[in-house]
Structures are given as C-alpha cells and as structure tokens.
Amino acid sequence: MFNRAILAALLGAILLAVAPLAQAVEIKHDLGTTEVPDAPKRIVVLEYSFVDSLAAVGVAPVGIADDDTRESIVPAYTAVIGDDWKSVGTRKSPSLEVIASLQPDLIIADTSRHEAIYGALSEIAPTIAFDSLTGTYQVALEAAKTIAHAVGKDAEMAARLAEHEKKMEGFKAEIGDVSAWSAQFIIDNGEGIFLHSPVSYNGSLLAWFGFKNNMPTPDGHTYEEAIVKTSLEQLSEINPQVILRGKYADPGLTDSWVGQPLYDNVEAVKTGNVFDVNAHEWSRLRGVIASEVSGANLVEIVKNLKK
Predict the structure, then answer these.
(1) What pTM does this model have?
(2) Is residue 2 situated within a structural domain?
C-alpha cells in the first residue's frame, strides 16, 4: 500500500512537471521564436491584419490598436469578434500601459512598426511579430496560418483557407484574362499621392489576379519601396491603364490635377478607367477577409473597364 502511494505521488509529480510543457507551443516568427500558452484567451493585436486573421477563425481579441477610431474595425470583422474589446491606441504607437492593464496572454505585433518595443511587449506577455505593413498578399496568408496555430485553430484556418481559395479563384474566373492591362493602386490624402508598388500587399494582390504593374520592382521590401510617394510627372511616366484610387480627402490632390495635360493624358484618366475604392479597406486592411472584399470590388471594376 505504501509503495503504491509513493508511486502514485511520483506519477502525479511527473504529470505536473510535464503539463506546462504540453500547454505551450513554440511559434517561429519574424523576430524570433516564442513560447505561447496553449489556446490563449486574452489576445492583443497591434495591426488590422491580425484582427482579420483572428476573425477568420472566430477568435475575438481583448485589445486592438485601432488608431483610436473604433469604426476602423469594419463590420466584416465585428460581425465575428463583436465589440467587447478595448482600444490600445494607435498602430504606430500603442499604449504599453493599456496593453498591460488587459493582462494579455498573447500579443501580436508588426515586425517593422514594433521591433523597437518588442522587448517591452515581451515583458508584458508572449509576443509574436509578422510583416503586415510591408508584406505581400502571400505573406499575409502565411502569417494568418501561423497565428491560427498560435491560438490553437489550425483546423479552422485550414478550412477557412480552403473556402478562401475557392472564393478567390471564383473572383479570378469572373474577372477573366487581364494580363494585357496595367493596374495601379494609389492613395490620395489631399497633400500627396502614394503608389503601392509590386512588392506591396496591393501590388502583389493585383498581380495575383493577373494585372501588370508598370512600376519597376524594387530589390527590397522596405516601407519606402512598398509605398512610394509619387509626383504627377512620375505617375505620367508609369502611365497605368487602370487606376484604383483610395481617397482620404475629398477633393483629393488628383482632383486638382484635372485639366493639366500630364494628368489628362495618363492612359487610365484619358480612357475613364479611374475607379474610386474605399481607402481604409484597401490601404490598411490585409488578410483573408480583406482580400475577399478587394476581389469582389475588382469583379465590379472589371465589368466597367472602358477599352
């Protein structure tokens, strides 16, 4: 009896010692390898694309860097995650104090935006980082898979990505062969215009659908190489056949160019193929759900192309 009691106690101790190991998963990410608790429940996300990844598998974060604008979390996300989350400030400079007050068990950060505060974030909770700001469409999908693994939703993400692929291929079939068309996404904030290059999220997404891009492809993936501030003269040299324009100001800077020969002779302007899209959804949101919204937009845009 005594030996059995000792054996039972030893087995219990072994199980207790092993349990923490079974309850953590190692996640490789852009800034290292981090042990994440099994199925974390209190997650703080510091980029919109990470909201997208969680919404794709039905997980609600407790904190979001929403740029102090709750409306920036679009209905496509809130329909899944609800609105019971706290703002932790801006994506560029999130509040460490507010993040800590939420007692998170996982923080998901952006590689370039948050590398300087990664150590401070990691002191609050296990932190994983991915390239949302300058990453491509393919990078966003890979990050979504890793995030799903970190939150214990591998099967759910596999199913969601299979659905995503079917939707995107459906959009591509509706759009048809656009390989003869050069398309350019631009942001117009009223003071400047910014072109999303071939290495940007939107540049790579348009390429996935088959569009050409007349911009030269940069060697790297820095912010300045992905999002390029551009003059009217440079836009006229790139001369896209289709412009997708996201305006943060109305009227925009491009509106003031109307009537100037350099602008009026840009192929997209001359043929009436300048299409306004939602600036926030196209320039800031990235991921599984966001790309499906963009795909649906492109289907309608292609229907209205003027040849």
Answers:
(1) 0.90
(2) no
